[in-house]
Structure formats: structure tokens, C-alpha cells
Amino acid sequence: MTTQRTVLVTGGNRGIGYAIAEQFVAEGHNVAVTARSGEGPAGTLTVRADVTDSASIDAAFTEIEAKLGPVEVVIANAGITRDMLIMRMSDDDFDDVVSTNLGGAFRVVKRASKGMLKARFGRIILISSVVGLLGSAGQVNYAASKAGLVGMARSITRELGARAITANIVAPGFIQTDMTAELPEATQAEYKKSIPAGRFAQVGEVARVVTWLAGDDASYISGAVIPVDGGLGMGH
Questions:
Q1: What 3-state DSSP class applies to 93?
Q2: Has 18 been annotated as catalytic?
Q3: Which of 18, 142, 191, 220 is catalytic?
Q4: Span 152-207, pLDDT tens digits
């Protein structure tokens, strides 16, 4: 039985973030999600926040702390893409993706760490991507932001590990979402050829790894990169 925790999932209004929030609710936790628009799943507290803005993050945490108590588990999931070949990628395309995906995780974790240090307990889980370690043409900005999360989690582990705070990375591969469903059949088949499992993941397969990492059974795991990619990124 895992201890009941107060959990925050950023970008919990769709896709992987929504599934993660749903899984935490199913396991009996108190769950808040941040979203710029839309709502988190039933049973969650949705708060408006922009991860590129520290004041907005601070206000979101203050609201969550007042309603649910100090955040003990934080899942930094909010992210964007601006895919483009490097020759055509503007400075803004690069900066915006890095500021949201990497800077956003920094701002959220920095604010969460206050309460975690006081409680001498915390679970920090950063949602990266197989692309962060494998690379992907047209995704220099996205891959750089997702690779940066690895260095972040490992540095946080060295800084805060003695206070019973862990920091880990989950690196999903191709996931069955609305976005992948819209890809032409031939493109989907081509992608699946490179995945040893021969299929895309279900969002729940990622969500259950995240809830496990946040639970009591994973208390001695920190600074780890856990791939959920059907074998796509082996060795990376």
C-alpha cells in the first residue's frame, strides 16, 4: 500500500499528463494539475498556470497548498514542440521550446523544493522523451530541452538526495495519442518498424511507471532514466 500523497502534474489537461493525473487519482492520491486551458480529469483540482512565468507558478502552488496541502510529488510534464530543420529554426523557436520544457521544469521544481525540504520528503519526476537521448531530425530544440532534464534530475539528486527527496526521469517513446492517430498509416507503419515492440505505447503504460516511481517501492531510486519506449532507445 502506497502512502497517500499530494501530487501536482503540470500540463495535466491532455495526453500523457492527463493519464498520469488520472492514475494518481485512481490510486487514492490528492491530485492537482496545472493547465493553460482545459481541465484535468475528474477528481483533480485544476489551476491555471504558465510554466514560463515564475509568479504564475508561485500563485498556482499557493492555491494548491491552501486547498490540498504541501506538494509532496511533482510531475514536470508540460511541454511544447516547434519542429523544424535547424537551417529554418528561428531563435524564438529554439528559445520558446527550451524555456517551456526545460525552464518550466526548473521553475516548478524550484518552487516545489521549498515544501519538500521542510517535510524532508519529495518525489520529483521529469517527463523527458526517447528523443532527448536518441536525437531526432527537425527537433534540435525539443531534443536539447528533453536531454537537459537528465542533467537537472541528476544534479537535484546530488543536492537534495540526503533529505529523502528523489529526482527521476521518465523517457517515453511513441505514444498512442490523438496526435499519432492523425499520422498517415504508412508513416505509422514506418515508425513501428523501428520499435522492437512493434507498436506504440498506451498512455496508461507511461502513467503506471510514473505512479510507481512516486510510490514507496521506489524510495531508493534517484537520478535514473526510465525508458518507456518498447526498446526504441536501447543503450541511449
A1: helix
A2: no
A3: 142
A4: 999 999 999 999 999 999 999 999 987 778 878 888 898 899 999 999 999 999 99
CA distance 177 to 16: 8
Q: Residue type for 222, please?
A: S
- Residue 174 DSSP symbol: S
Give the Cα separation of 113 and 195 in Å (integer): 37
d(CA 153, CA 172): 16
Is residue 217 exposed (0-12), middle (13-18) or buried (19+ Cβ within 10 Å)? Answer: exposed
Distance, in Å, from the CA atom of 207 to the CA atom of 23, rounded to the nearest integer, reads: 6
pLDDT reported for residue 221:
98
For the chain, the residue count is 236
Centroid of chain to Cα 158: 20
Which residues have C-beta within 8 Å of that of residue 210, sequence separation ≥ 6? 20, 23, 75, 125, 127, 170
Domains of the chain plus CATH, in order, are 6-228 (3.40.50.720)
Residue whose C-alpha cell is 520544457: 101
Taking only the tens place, the pLDDT of each residue in 83-118 is 999 999 999 999 999 999 999 999 999 999 999 999
Task: Report the chain's C-alpha Rg in angstroms.
Answer: 17
The H-assigned helical ranges of the chain are 15-26, 54-68, 91-98, 104-119, 131-134, 140-160, 178-181, 185-193, 203-214
Torsion of CA 90, 96, 98, 100, to 10 degrees: -160
